[in-house]
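User: My collaborator sent over this chain with a note saying "see what the structure looks like." That's all I know about it. Can you take a look?
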Amino acid sequence: MSHGDKSKYTDKQKRKAEHIAESYEARGVPEKEAEARAWATVNKDDGGGKKPGGSGRGKATGHPAAHKGGESGGKASAGRSAAERSASARKAAATRKANAAARA
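Assistant: Without extra context I'll predict from the sequence alone. Here is the result:
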């Protein structure tokens, strides 16, 4: 197990960390490093353990990391001219049409 007491983490947070660690290990990251990254990700998402204890109660989660992708979307498209975007859209439409014809 990673450093530190994990008693304040919920079962869901522990499952989440385990799943993230397995994913890192599948990509060739060493076990200890994968586990450290997994708990760092859980902490980034949830702000630490959610179980009540010490002062205060368990805290709600907003999953900020899970919503990060929406901020960066569209930057590649915004950097291109209208003509380039239009050409790309025409090419995509032609590809979809060809794929639909091939399936039919």
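A starting point for your reply to your collaborator: The CA atoms of residues 51 and 57 lie 7 Å apart.
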